[in-house]
Amino acid sequence: MSTLVTEGIRNRHSSQTADNIILNSDGTITADGLTISTTSKSCATIQRTSDATTSGATSAPLTILTINITPTKSTSKFLITAGGPFDGTKDVTTTSNRSQLQIYRGTTPLGEPTDGYAKGAGFYLAFFDSNNHSGNQVSYHLKIRPEGNLANFPETILVKKGASLSVLEIK
């Protein structure tokens, strides 16, 4: 049990006040006689604590962040968001080229990718996944790839520290 001490909490529908909020292990919140029920949901967030740099000739998507999440209900849906700073690609001649960031469920790309270039920028992606997972664990990934077939074209891609991936279960 956790307790948050405040100077006062008032029920907006009465004059009753409370000095403590208690977060109970059963998912309820008690504030000196006021009880609020909450619906438990599954939520996960991961954030890069260092830059992710890749280089070399590749056209395959490269995984930057991964979240494995098990829903609390077999019919739940998921809201997936990702965002943060990144530099697109730079080739050996420092020409700017486009990179694409995209959210994946397993190996399946979800929604539309977002583009980035060598000068650096921020990105934000969101996708509502209504796929039937039957209550099984689901893996979501944030992946980046250079645009086009760059098998003979060495690239450097940098997703910077602070980029994040979040998944929220929606019942």
Commentary on this structure:
By secondary structure, the chain is an all-beta fold. It has no helices and 15 strands. The chain is globular, with a radius of gyration of 22 Å. The two termini are about 25 Å apart.
Class by alpha and beta content: mainly beta
- Write the H/E string, N to C: EEEEEEEEEEEEEEE
- Biggest pleated-sheet summary: 7 strands, antiparallel
The radius of gyration computed from the alpha-carbon positions, rounded to a whole number of angstroms, is: 22 Å
Roughly what fraction of the amino acids lie in strands? over 45%
Q: Which whole number gives the mean pLDDT?
A: 74
- Approximate helicity band: under 10%
Distance between the termini: 26 Å
Count of DSSP helices?
0
| Unreliable spans | 33-40
> How many β-strand runs?
15
- Anisotropy-based shape: globular
User: From the structure provided, what is the oligomeric state, counting identical versus distinct chains?
Assistant: single chain
List the helices and strands and how they pair.
Layout: E1 2-10, E2 17-23, E3 28-31, E4 34-37, E5 43-47, E6 52-56, E7 62-69, E8 77-91, E9 96-97, E10 99-105, E11 108-116, E12 121-129, E13 138-146, E14 155-159, E15 164-170
Antiparallel strand pairs: 1-2, 2-3, 3-4, 5-15, 6-14, 7-13, 8-9, 8-12, 8-14, 8-15, 10-11, 10-13
